[in-house]
Amino acid sequence: MPSKTQPGPSVRSGRSKSRREDGPRVVAVVAYDGVSTFELGLTLEVFGLSRLGTDWYRVVVCSERPGRPLTANNGLKVIADGGLSVLAGADTIIVPGSRDIVEASPALLDALRRAHRRGARVASICAGAFILAAAGLLDGRRATTHWALTTELSRRYPRVEVDANVLYVDDGDVMTAAGRAAGLDLCLHIVRSDHGTDIANRVARRLVIAPHREGGQAQYIRQPVPPVEGDALASVFDWAQRHLDRDLTIASLAAKARMSRRTFIRRFEDATGMSPGEWVVQTRVAKARELLEATRIPIERVATETGFGSADAMRHHFRQRLGTSPANYRAVFRAPVN
Fold first, then answer.
1. Neighbour-count burial of 246, counting CB atoms closer than 10 A to its CB (0-12 exposed, 13-18 middle, 19+ buried)
2. I need a surface site. Which of 151, 209, 269, 271 has the fewest CB within 10 A?
3. Residue 160 pLDDT > 80, yes or no?
4. Considering only CA atoms, which of 80, 90, 152 is closest in space to residue 123?
């Protein structure tokens, strides 16, 4: 698989349709025979956390056989809370994947179509994308799945624009994530979209995971474990994140790591799955998003503090990666003033 990244997910203008005014958002998680316990469990862990506010999520596991045991991919028995009728009232629907590609029943496919037409946000993890594709929800859309399954997804569903190189794709009301841990990234992205950066970071701390990985990161990297504390690259990451306003050239970063340019680039791509330049841009965009959400700092100053140099340069990268401008992003995602 290539180590270079593709453009990240686009962020649609406007708050998610999942926002309720009359109580907690309902997240329906679809269970079925063969469902991945890891992907089912990570969804419940993220959206089922407690003490995060009165408008936090209410999670319901649903299946075609509510009350009857389902057999997950590792033999674990799962009993759903409700039937497919739950999808009719859900704000967000998550379809976890499985070890094998599952042929979804006509009843499930119809329930997903009706929920989506009603305005529910629908997301899949890993092979769950095949279920969304079978329902026609990915036709004409950019989507992803586990890198080992992308060729098969393209073959079965040629109308889907399959991107094999990203962690997740946010296409507004339909989202797809790559394999396993990328599901955590997508779930945190949903939390961040609904509740803002501060809450998403609190969730990440509770789960002891990285608070944000851009969706456009490569799925497959040769060294999937981040550099450990004390590693030369780890010190460069830390230093660069604290000095985004500086000219972070490859030469300067390589010198900081006390490596030759060639060795630095190779080590960096092995560790992150992306080039140093791409990492710097993604990190600057992520920091700019945080400042736009959490502060009232003028956009020109946000651009300066995050190293873009000018508001025009920052607008270019926001348009390219998020499909919106910094001003529109702030209008949509800035936390309300108490």
1. exposed
2. 151
3. yes
4. 90
Which residues does 99 contact at the CB level (< 8 Å), separation at least 6? Answer: 34, 36, 73, 127
Q: Which pTM was predicted?
A: 0.70
Please report where in the chains the tokens 């679809």 appear, as a residue. Answer: 30
pLDDT in tens, 196-226: 888 888 898 888 776 656 665 555 444 444 4
Q: What is the pLDDT of residue 274?
A: 82
Phi, psi of 72 (to 5 degrees): -75, 180
pLDDT at 187 over 60: yes
Higher-confidence residue of 245 and 272: namely 245
Cβ contacts of residue 270 below 8 Å, gap of 6+? 221, 222, 223
DSSP state of 98: B
Report d(CA 191, CA 187) in Å as an integer: 6
* Whole-angstrom distance, CA of residue 180 vs CA of residue 189: 15
Three-state DSSP class for 273?
Answer: coil
Q: Please, what is the angle between helix 311-322 and helix 276-294, to 10°? A: 100
> Which residues, other chains included, contact 275 with Cβ-Cβ below 8 Å and sequence gap of 6+?
4, 265, 268, 269
Domains of the chain: 26-207 (3.40.50.880), 232-272 (1.10.10.60), 278-333 (1.10.10.60)
Question: Tokens for 148?
Answer: 């080992």
